[in-house]
Amino acid sequence: MIFQIDFKSGKPVYLQLVDQIRYAAASGALRSGEPLPSIRPLAEELRVNRNTIAKAYAELEGQGVIETIPGKGCFLKKSDSPFNKQVRQKLLAAEIDEAVVMAHHLQVDREKFLALVRERLDYFECKVKGKNE
């Protein structure tokens, strides 16, 4: 699994990591029982403090997404799998909320916002069809 950190985003690094792991779990890119990267190598790879990775993993464990097995590492939790529809919808709703707030701040009205959403959906739909052909 490849993680990308944007140090200029203003969003704390540990929350970026939390979001990426949750999305990977919800999309099926990370499967139930699959191990997460060890803290030290991941911290070195991302060039962040080990405590940042530990904080992200602690947050995910608190949310019930992962579990820590002493001596073995962190794994995507088998019970209460984050792959269910409700969790995916909750993740998507949070992203939509951010987009709506951004549109409000940019003074984009409802019709223009919805038109842009439709345009982006069409764009990605065409992109996916192009790959499948």
Walk me through the structure.
By secondary structure, this protein is mainly α. It folds into two domains: 64 residues, Winged helix-like DNA-binding domain superfamily/Winged helix DNA-binding domain (Arc Repressor Mutant, subunit A); 48 residues. Helix content is 60%, strand content 6%. The chain has five helices and two strands. It has a two-stranded antiparallel ribbon with strand order 1-2. The longest helix is centred in the last third of the chain and has 23 residues. The radius of gyration is 17 Å and the shape is globular.
Short description:
The chain is mainly alpha-helical and 133 residues long. It is built from 5 helices and 2 strands.
> What Rg, in angstroms, do the CA atoms define?
17 Å
CATH architecture of the largest domain: Orthogonal Bundle
Name of the CATH superfamily of the largest domain: Winged helix-like DNA-binding domain superfamily/Winged helix DNA-binding domain
Number of separate structural domains: 2
Task: Give the helix tally.
Answer: 5
Mean pLDDT: 87
Give the SSE layout.
Layout (H helix, E strand, L loop, with lengths): L12 H15 L11 H8 L3 H13 L3 E4 L3 E4 L8 H21 L4 H23 L1
Antiparallel strand pairs: 1-2
Helix pairs in contact: 1-3, 1-4, 2-3
What attributes does this structure have?
133 residues, mainly alpha, Arc Repressor Mutant, subunit A, 2 domains, two-stranded antiparallel sheet, 2 strands, 60% helix
